[in-house]
Amino acid sequence: MQYDFHNTVVMITGGAQGLGYVLAGGFHSAGAKVALVDVNEKKLKEATELLGRDVKPFVCDITNSGAVVVAVKDIERELGPIHVLVNNAGVVSTEHLLDTSPENWKKIIDVNLSGTFYCLQAVAKSMVKKETKGRIINISSLAGRNGGIMVSPAYSASKAGILGLTKAAARQLAPYGITVNAIAPGSLDSEMISSFGEEKVKALRMGMPLGRLGSFQDVQAAVLFLASPEAEFIDGVCLDVNGGQFMAP
Known about the structure:
Elements: E1 9-13, H1 18-29, E2 33-38, H2 41-51, E3 55-59, H3 65-79, E4 84-87, H4 102-130, E5 135-139, H5 143-146, H6 153-173, E6 179-185, H7 191-194, H8 198-206, H9 216-227, E7 238-241
Parallel strand pairs: 1-2, 1-4, 2-3, 4-5, 5-6, 6-7
């Protein structure tokens, strides 16, 4: 499906690489003005140069609530009111429960869950103030649905927390015409999955009902749909993009 996001400002966290970069490319190709938010200044600059016109970089540590507020103001000053927020930034961990230190637990929760909340809150406040009937899309994970396969309990807990946050925010922001939804990708063909080793990747692929790992483009299609006018009556849901790895009742 072809989408038209002209006259639309999209903020994407973790937009300098991986899934975030692919999502940015999808919105940019559909005519949107894209604000790439990332903590990695070097990769952010590279991504912005590759995507080209109407894509702006914003360096921000999303675990710092004050920095997030400043970033949102900077984005709106340069590009205009934010219409779509994609909370994509996150870090992964594969530590066993018994080996997880308090420091690593806090790091995962701070980035994946608290960072998502800070961005959601800051953008929602602006949307309400400007009476923007916007879209907020949170990237969760299959691990938040089933406890994870090869990831740490901290990661699973952070992604499950995003699902609860999505529902609560959807309920409270609906009166303002703002929808909040989540996407839970399954095993994607990515650097993270490749790092598990050839045998584990092979086992994952063999366990996929559809016979392949997911792609960033699979997730991109779901995000673009939820941000489009066609999804205006969808609110508070988790869209599973996992090739049948997990089938919600």
